[in-house]
Amino acid sequence: MLNLNEIMSLTRPIAWGAGDILMKYYQEPQDLEITFKGGEEGNVTSADLAANDFILSQLKQTFGTDNFAYLSEETEDNIDRLDHEWVWIIDPMDGTSDFIRRTNEFAVHIGLTYRQRPVLGLVATPAQDRLFQGILGNGAYIETRDGLQQPIRVSNKIALTEMVVVASRSHRNYQLENILHQLPKAAEIAVGSIGGKFAAIASGHADVYISVSGKSAPKDWDYCAPEIILTEAGGQLTHSDLSLLSYNNLELRQWGTIVASNGHCHREICQISQEAIAPIMK
């Protein structure tokens, strides 16, 4: 396997640079162009596209295309990626709707998979000037602009009644509402991007996240980078049947009920989720 620490050291500046591009547009909203992509795809902005071009050009210049394939939300898919063991999976801006609404809750996702599982991930939260990162077997860290890194860890809460659920403000459906109603919890907070939600769990500020697909579903680039940060911080991410997520398949959507947690009650949360929506799905 390639040296993941070396890859991370080369990728960190790219994540910071993409965040800087987003903040330039965020601070000068008069320059922001917004286009509706159609269907369930939502909006894309000139900030998304500028960050996407920067990330892809920098990654390809640094790592080439012989050993690595590239999959990004804002670039047409090339299924030649299916022939590669190493695939970069990128969301240049997770939380575009929050960016447009100016909630400060958007993120850059840069993940690297090996044989369909994430091994390295970076989630930049530009409005907070923070960079979360994780490497398989090497832990998870938060980095500030001065380069100072501190390890992060999930909370040690072991009772569901103590746990804080982090959820979306907008991507909610009846099935998810039913699960959240039946799930014992201490509180529920709203965070915009999936990267921000997973960072909150990975750093101990929240404990549970649940997604239930409807007409559409989150895609590889939503979960890839955040997953390795969460799991390296001690958390878990699975489908509600406890199976792991698989990346770089022909189908990019992650269908079904997906649960992220601090790991201490993960099986119980998955069981509650399945039981809560079973009558609805019949």
TrEMBL record:
Reaction it catalyzes: a myo-inositol phosphate + H2O = myo-inositol + phosphate
Binding site for Mg(2+): 73, 91, 94, 222
CDD domains: CysQ
EC class (word): hydrolase
Required co-factors: Mg(2+)
Statement: the UniProt record of this protein carries the keyword Magnesium: yes
Key words of the record: Hydrolase, Magnesium, Metal-binding
GO MF term list: inositol monophosphate 1-phosphatase activity; metal ion binding
Enzyme Commission code: 3.1.3.25
GO terms of biological process kind: inositol metabolic process; phosphatidylinositol phosphate biosynthetic process; signal transduction
Name used for this protein in its record: inositol-phosphate phosphatase
Natural source organism: Pseudanabaena biceps PCC 7429
